[in-house]
Specification:
Elements: E1 41-47, E2 49-50, E3 62-63, H1 69-90, E4 96-104, H2 112-125, E5 127-137, H3 144-153, E6 157-163, H4 167-173, H5 179-191, E7 195-201, H6 209-222, E8 226-230, H7 239-245, H8 254-270, E9 273-277, E10 280-283, H9 290-296, E11 301-304, E12 309-312, E13 315-319, H10 323-331, E14 337-342, H11 345-357, E15 361-363, H12 364-371, H13 375-378, H14 380-388, E16 392-395, E17 398-401, H15 403-407, H16 411-422
Parallel strand pairs: 1-4, 1-11, 2-3, 4-5, 5-6, 6-7, 7-8
Antiparallel strand pairs: 8-10, 9-10, 12-13, 13-14, 15-17, 16-17
Helix pairs in contact: 1-2, 1-10, 2-3, 6-8, 11-16
The structure holds S-adenosylmethionine and iron/sulfur cluster (SF4).
Iron/sulfur cluster is lined by residues 50, 53-54, 57, 59, 61, 104-106, 138, 161.
Length: 424
């Protein structure tokens, strides 16, 4: 522009050549903030083996009876190959890995040697920076020598799948655990110095107010760092589903489950277990899990192993769920990715609103910095209604779930998502 004057946006003119957006007059030194910061990464490692197939469980797992040691060996070798390949392909070694989560399945079923090989591979091909290292465990599989080994490997969080402390309820799930196993495993896990979480399920077959109160009492007595209560989800690939179809099983109704979870919440509150996400409660609100909170706020997570999920930049993706295919693909030196989805800018924002609400408090200033939108203003009619009906509070740029909001799970997140989508 020869005159130095800028044309008004609606002026019909050929003057003014746009070279940058936004124009360089808005650029500042502080605009470089974040550019040179390393992009953190979470890692998930899936182990599909279990000692039984629990009647309610929908996860892609396979029992040990079907899979002998040689097959597990082959699986661990494939995992190590995948870690090396993926790291090279996506330059993951350049990024700090802030958390590693061994999930399943039952990762405590892997031998000491298998676990060591996996950790070596992760250390060789990724940059582990004092990572949070979590491992899921089934009580009956946590032996003293396994616990010792986990400590030696640097596992600093152990999540025990206990489901119920009531032996009658446990028996009906097909699990081999008992209340006694649960307490032994909790003691072993605590002795490693790790932060210990206990998973419970609120809608198991045979559960009554009495058995549930027993489970909650024992859970509080266990005095672990963190308690998670899952609402039982019914999936078509489970024994529960087949038995319901055959009319040989009844499960607690939604109303009963709501009563169970309400009871749990009241008891947890009394004992200062505070909600940190759906549906995890930690002593004094401390011991938050980095893996889940950063993942829900959009930090990239690479999922290794058969059927594992992950996300990189705007993509979400999943590995094949077919175990032989997973092994063959890696044998051929290829990635076992099988499907994915590229999120638009709006979908990235919606995802953060929905998953971010799962963390109970959503920081709207950080949200606006990341997405450029004032969520409370955009969703004002919905937020006002949710506030009026007691699901959320809006204070100083933080949108928080109330106890009622927590009880109704993803309801608030779904309402926000619908509003954002309607504005498209
Ligand atoms: C993938 S499992 C791994 C834990 C370990 N295999 C065990 O069962 O001890 C993680 C948790 O998912 C939960 N879970 C499994 N099936 C579920 C379902 N159908 N609905 C809700 N939660 C479920 C259980 O609480 C379980 O502890
Ligand atoms: S609940 Fe755990 S042990 Fe049972 S089948 Fe699922 S992953 Fe395996």
């Amino acid at each position: 522009m020869s005159t130095g004057e800028r044309p008004a946006p609606d002026e019909l003119t050929r003057r003014g050549f746009v070279t940058h957006y936004p124009p360089s007059r808005y650029w500042r030194p502080e605009g470089l903030r974040g550019l040179l910061d390393p992009r953190p990464l979470n890692v998930y490692v899936h182990s599909p083996y279990c000692i039984q197939r629990c009647a309610y469980c929908h996860y892609k797992t396979t029992t040990l009876a079907e899979h002998r040691k040689a097959e597990i060996d082959a699986y661990v070798s494939a995992l190590c190959r995948e870690i090396a390949l993926v790291s090279r392909r996506f330059h993951l070694k350049e990024r700090p890995t802030i958390s590693v989560y061994f999930g399943g399945g039952t990762p405590t079923l892997l031998s000491r040697e298998h676990l060591s090989r996996l950790m070596e591979s992760l250390r060789e091909h990724l940059t582990l920076e004092e990572p949070e290292l979590t491992l899921e465990a089934e009580p009956v599989t946590l032996t003293p020598s396994k616990a010792e080994h986990l400590q030696a490997l640097g596992v600093n969080r152990i999540s025990l799948g206990i489901q119920s402390f009531h032996d009658d309820i446990l028996r009906r799930t097909g699990r081999h655990d008992t209340e006694q196993h649960a307490f032994k495993a909790i003691a072993l896990a605590k002795a490693t110095g790790a932060i210990v979480n206990v998973d419970l399920m609120s809608g198991l077959a045979g559960e009554s107010d009495r058995t549930w109160a027993y489970t909650i009492e024992r859970a509080l007595e266990a005095n672990v760092h963190s308690l998670t209560v899952y609402k039982t989800e019914l999936h078509a690939n489970t024994d529960y589903y087949a038995d319901l179809k055959r009319h040989t099983l009844t499960l607690p109704t939604d109303d009963e489950e709501l009563r169970f979870i309400t009871h749990a919440l009241e008891q947890f509150e009394r004992h200062d277990y505070q909600p940190v996400n759906f549906f995890t409660f930690t002593r004094g609100g401390a011991f938050r899990q980095r893996h889940i909170s950063s993942r829900w706020l959009g930090t990239d997570t690479y999922g290794f192993g058969v059927s594992a999920f992950g996300s990189l930049d705007a993509h979400v993706m999943q590995n094949t769920s077919d175990l032989p295919r997973y092994l063959q693909t890696l044998e051929a030196g290829e990635l076992p990715l099988t499907r994915g989805y590229r999120l638009s800018a709006r979908e990235l924002m919606t995802r953060e609103a929905v998953l971010g609400m799962k963390l109970i408090h959503l920081d709207l200033t950080a949200f606006q910095q990341r997405h450029g939108f004032d969520l409370a203003r955009w969703c004002a009619p919905v937020v006002e209604e949710l506030e009026k009906n007691g699901f959320v509070t809006l204070r100083e740029h933080t949108l928080s779930l109330t106890r009622k909001g927590i009880l109704w799970g993803d309801y608030v997140g779904r309402r926000l998502a619908a509003r954002i989508e309607s504005l498209a």
